[in-house]
Amino acid sequence: MIGYVTLGTNDRERGAKFYDAVCGELGVGRMMEEEQFIAWGIPGGGAGIGLTTPFDGKPATVGNGVMVALEASDEAQVRRLYEIALANGGTCEGPPGPRGEGFYAAYFRDPDGNKLNAFVMS
Hints:
Elements: E1 4-8, H1 12-25, E2 29-33, E3 37-41, E4 48-52, E5 67-71, H2 75-87, E6 91-98, E7 103-109, E8 115-121
Parallel strand pairs: 1-4, 5-8
Antiparallel strand pairs: 2-3, 3-4, 6-7, 7-8
């Protein structure tokens, strides 16, 4: 259903470092790269994630209520993704832990303030 999600950045190289690390833990690398835009994922695979400086030339801003959820393989990977995010300029929005029956997640923001989570459902 969803092919990819694009998030804005005001510092492409700083953001690329963050997503290289997070996406690397998920087993995917860069699948497309241009001067303004980078996408991570597998061509023909599941949904990817892109990072871009806005094409209109205005500063990137964060959408209130917008979040990208990254599906992890297990609780240990949720914890690793959270630690990787924080080690690469991300900030905590909620440490790893259970969030209701059968749902384990961690919440964090990338260096530009875009909200993400890593989760696993049982």
